[in-house]
């Protein structure tokens, strides 16, 4: 008989230290580049120096003569196997290797396979590619002009326009604008940025010719979806493809797409009969992998003179690069951008987005953002401030006047979303109180009188996460449910396998806490596994803050299925009817007789040793959870900045983030998520942008030019919370991984504009660099020389 | 990128012309020059090493002389590749005899640099180009103005 454990359960709400950190802090993480297989070869890639060119010839003879070089793979080789192109997750197609033209700088042109990494790099230097340069187009607005270079002549449609998408009610919106007392309008550019995960992309592909099985260790956020796509592309049966996503050093949306290197490595392994490793270097990652944002937005907000907001009208040009390879749900080419009405009660809205091809790497990955929500939140949060400035109202007062009232939830937005729950005034009031808003405003007025520049910025954002319900959400037709499988072992420990894939989110801890809470088993007795398609149940992966809303829900539901069976076993053990039992304090006990109880550990042992006759032995369950709706986390952020009139530098003096992600599994992990997210939100607000010169050369191709924040640039974040549970999620959680990335940039931009608003400044595009600010100070005669 | 300049050389125009028509002489002063294959009187393939900031690249260039109007006008096109980088250039040179012993040279070049060299060294290209052209012309003048030109 199993002995009773004294170990505490530590389920929901406990700051359990992260189980995965034991190996990470000891340097024992196992990343793709740590994997070494016998006989493994190395792959390196020849990349295009041109943004747009035809390929006249590829001469690999010198490379093949190099010691150690075993093969050079070109687009023509792949074309013969029908693999020169691959489908993207957006229904477009993408070159794996080009047959006759390149369409962005650093595009893969050929691949060298060699016995070691050095020989592969030397081989790359010896592949002679003859190009005929073509004029590139890197500006999506120019790309729409009639005489623009055509990026994709392979398509039937001979323009650079990809698609048009819209949401909301155009007629009603126009009507409100025609009658409006006040209209404000701004052009906003959300620049192109890169996720820059610390681990670059890579894989080890190993084809076993005897078994006919392809095993790929790869840096992917969505191993199952990748397996299905690989099977469809290569015609290898899906059960003969094994994708393993080991420890991942950051994903942030950049490891959802399939990059050509993955496919080339698989071909190389099949061709050579050896395992083949491909690992990008830092510049390759930054220059060629999918990017985020790059939205050119024109937004208008209509209101009454008293500040009542009425309608929002938005037109957007979306730069998707040369291939539409974002990973949005199929029905949402512009992601969930239509959540753009934010936390405000509007009568109508109309949002349009046009996707455009340019000679740049493919775009639109959801960089720590649930599919274009960052762009949406930035737009509405900036526009509310623009309106406040126009009306000479305090931006907090204007927000409080226009918030969706707490009693109106569930709330149907003018673009069709049903917000599950929210209490926006409570979050903003808490933020204002904690930061001392009124006092800061007084300080600002005094400083302004002395000529000092201080600004206070707000962001009261609503996110939309947890994609998503199968009636609306799919990727390549695969519905966006997610899954969990739990097996409780005879001695009362358990293994949980989930369809989502961690890249630092702490799933090994939080999913164990969900099971601990639901089953009353100690958290350390629960192992969480993920990322192996041969063992984990099918799921769509981790991005868009979807793990807790989908697989987290599946885990709770699977645990509850186990608890239901456990109840029958408990009834058998206690010799009562299941109806006489209640689940209390992590035990089944007889109602009215609290001393008569059994723990889950006792039940688990009985499930294998003494289960009721007629009942299946064992204690396990699977759940594929189809969420009934998305979840809508929200927050109220306040940023206080001081601006140096001599340098234009923006210094964040204080930043307070009040987040509401519903019920919290692990407060410490949530805090960590928010700290990281705030830093990744501050970076594009102040530092990061990728630009191109007229020849299509990326101008920030390394970390000397692309400014990732370090601890030096990062202010001390202040965090707090309100808790408004999701009414439809099994344990009331909403998802938090991305709130801060989404919510922080407008708070910072609003603070800077606020500091300069008395000069007539209404908008500054991010990143707000010292140079941009200094030019404004000079224009207005307030720069210190 | 557009570069242009004017040089005054203390040498007769025919001497200057002859000097610039001789690829081996021009190569003496070309910064980073390594070797050259001469394919014809107006077609050469020099190999040159270029360093911009931290990025070093060895280009094999395909150079063609065009529109030769002795002794006043010449045009040059060049295209070259290095690992991850490429350069495309067109240049025009006009010589005028200021006196029997002095020649004025006006030159203009359009250069498109692509790839790693442009993206990593981008901000340093202009200053590097100015430095290298300065070195080239100083060296050229020395050769041409020497008492007995080599």
Please state roughly what percent of the residues of chain B sit in beta strands, choosing from under 5%, 5-15%, 15-25%, 25-35%, 35-45% or over 45%. Answer: over 45%
Class from helix and strand fractions of chain B = alpha+beta
- Cα(first) to Cα(last) distance of chain B is 33 Å
- What is the radius of gyration of chain A? 28 Å
CATH homology superfamily of the largest domain in chain A: Aldehyde oxidase/xanthine dehydrogenase, molybdopterin binding domain
Specify the biggest β-sheet of chain A.
7 strands, mixed
* CATH level-1 class of the largest domain in chain A: Alpha Beta
What's the average pLDDT of chain A? 96
What is the CATH T-level topology of chain B? Alpha-D-Glucose-1,6-Bisphosphate, Chain A, domain 4
Strands ordered across the widest β-sheet of chain B: 1-7-6-5-4-3-2
Q: How many domains comprise the coordinates of chain B?
A: 1
Corresponding CATH architecture of chain B: 2-Layer Sandwich
Distance between the termini of chain A: 82 Å
Largest sheet properties of chain B: 7 strands, antiparallel
């Amino acid at each position: 008989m199993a002995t009773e454990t004294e170990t505490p359960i530590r389920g929901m709400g406990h700051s359990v230290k992260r189980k995965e950190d034991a190996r990470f802090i000891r340097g024992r993480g196992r990343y793709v580049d740590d994997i070494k297989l016998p006989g493994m070869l190395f792959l390196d890639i020849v990349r295009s120096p041109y943004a747009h060119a035809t390929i006249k010839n590829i001469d690999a003879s010198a490379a093949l003569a190099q010691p150690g070089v075993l093969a050079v793979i070109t687009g023509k080789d792949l074309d013969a196997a029908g693999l020169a192109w691959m489908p993207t997750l957006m229904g477009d197609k993408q070159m794996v290797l080009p047959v006759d033209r390149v369409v962005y700088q650093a595009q893969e042109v050929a691949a060298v396979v060699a016995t070691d990494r050095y020989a592969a790099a030397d081989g790359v230097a010896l592949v002679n590619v003859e190009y005929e340069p073509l004029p590139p187009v890197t500006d999506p607005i120019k790309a729409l002009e009639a005489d623009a270079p055509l990026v994709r002549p392979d398509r039937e449609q001979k323009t650079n326009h990809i698609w048009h998408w819209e949401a909301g009610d155009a007629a009603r919106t126009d009507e409100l604008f025609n009658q409006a007392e006040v209209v404000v309008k701004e052009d906003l550019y959300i620049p192109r940025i890169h996720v820059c995960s610390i681990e670059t992309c890579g894989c080890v592909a190993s084809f076993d010719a005897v078994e006919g099985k392809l095993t790929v260790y790869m840096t992917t956020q969505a191993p199952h979806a990748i397996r299905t796509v690989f099977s469809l592309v290569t015609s290898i049966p899906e059960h003969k493809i094994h994708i393993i996503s080991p420890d991942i050093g950051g994903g942030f949306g950049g490891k959802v797409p399939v990059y050509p290197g993955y496919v080339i490595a698989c071909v190389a392994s099949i061709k050579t009969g050896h395992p083949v490793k491909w690992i990008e270097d830092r510049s390759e990652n930054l220059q060629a992998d999918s990017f985020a944002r790059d939205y050119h937005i024109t937004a208008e907000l209509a209101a009454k003179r008293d500040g009542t907001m009425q309608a929002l009208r938005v037109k957007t040009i979306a730069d998707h690069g040369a291939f539409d390879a974002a990973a949005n749900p199929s029905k949402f080419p512009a992601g969930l951008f239509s959540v753009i009405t934010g936390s405000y009660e509007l009568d109508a809205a109309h949002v349009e987005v046009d996707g455009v091809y340019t000679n740049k790497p493919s775009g639109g990955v959801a960089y720590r953002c649930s599919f274009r929500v960052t762009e949406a939140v930035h737009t509405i949060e900036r526009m509310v401030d623009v309106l406040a400035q126009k009306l000479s109202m305090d931006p907090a007062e204007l927000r409080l006047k226009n918030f969706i009232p707490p009693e109106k939830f569930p709330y149907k937005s003018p673009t069709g979303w049903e917000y599950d729950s929210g209490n926006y005034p409570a979050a903003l009031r808490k933020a204002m109180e904690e930061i001392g808003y009124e006092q800061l405003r007084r300080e600002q007025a005094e400083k302004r009188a002395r000529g000092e520049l201080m600004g206070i910025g707000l962001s009261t954002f609503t996110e939309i996460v947890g994609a998503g319900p199968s009636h609306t959400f799919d990727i390549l037709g695969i519905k966006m449910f997610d899954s969990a499988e739990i097996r409780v072992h005879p001695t009362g420990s358990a293994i949980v396998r989930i369809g989502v894939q961690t890249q630092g989110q702490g799933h090994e801890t939080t999913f164990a806490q969900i099971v601990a809470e639901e089953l009353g088993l100690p958290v350390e007795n629960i192992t969480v596994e993920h990322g192996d398609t041969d063992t984990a149940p099918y799921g769509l992966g981790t991005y868009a803050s979807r793990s807790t809303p989908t697989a987290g829900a599946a885990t709770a539901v699977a645990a509850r299925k186990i608890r239901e069976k456990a109840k029958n076993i408990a009834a058998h053990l206690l010799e009562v009817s299941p109806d006489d039992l209640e689940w209390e304090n992590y035990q089944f006990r007889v109602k009215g007789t609290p001393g008569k109880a059994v723990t889950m550990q006792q039940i688990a042992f009985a499930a294998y040793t003494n289960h009721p006759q007629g009942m299946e032995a064992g204690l396990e369950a699977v759940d594929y959870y189809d969420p009934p709706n998305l979840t809508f986390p929200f927050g109220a952020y306040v940023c206080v900045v001081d601006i140096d009139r001599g340098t234009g530098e923006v210094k964040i003096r204080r930043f307070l983030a009040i987040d509401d992600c519903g019920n919290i599994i692990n407060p410490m992990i949530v805090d960590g998520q928010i700290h990281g997210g705030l830093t990744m939100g501050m970076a594009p607000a102040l530092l990061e942008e990728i630009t191109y010169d007229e020849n299509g050369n990326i101008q920030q191709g390394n970390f000397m030019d692309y400014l990732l924040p370090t601890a030096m640039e990062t202010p001390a974040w202040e965090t707090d919370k309100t808790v408004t549970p999701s009414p439809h999620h099994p344990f009331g959680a909403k998802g938090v991984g991305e709130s801060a990335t989404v919510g922080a940039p407008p708070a910072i931009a609003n603070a800077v504009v606020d500091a300069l608003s008395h000069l007539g400044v209404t908008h500054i595009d991010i990143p707000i660099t010292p140079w941009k600010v200094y030019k404004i100070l000079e224009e207005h005669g307030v720069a210190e020389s | 990128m557009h570069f242009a300049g004017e040089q005054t050389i203390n040498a007769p125009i025919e001497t200057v012309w002859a000097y610039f028509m001789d690829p081996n002489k021009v190569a003496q002063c070309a910064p980073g020059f390594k070797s050259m294959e001469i394919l014809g009187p107006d077609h050469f393939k020099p190999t040159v090493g270029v360093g911009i900031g931290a990025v070093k690249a060895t280009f094999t260039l395909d150079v063609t002389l065009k529109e030769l109007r002795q002794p006043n006008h010449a045009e040059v096109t060049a295209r070259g590749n290095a690992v991850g980088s490429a350069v495309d250039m067109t240049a025009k040179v006009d010589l005028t005899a200021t006196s029997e012993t002095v020649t004025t040279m006006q030159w203009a070049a359009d250069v498109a640099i692509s790839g790693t060299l442009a993206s990593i060294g981008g901000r340093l290209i202009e200053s590097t180009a100015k430095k290298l052209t300065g070195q080239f012309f100083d060296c050229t003048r020395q050769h041409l103005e020497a008492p007995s030109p080599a």
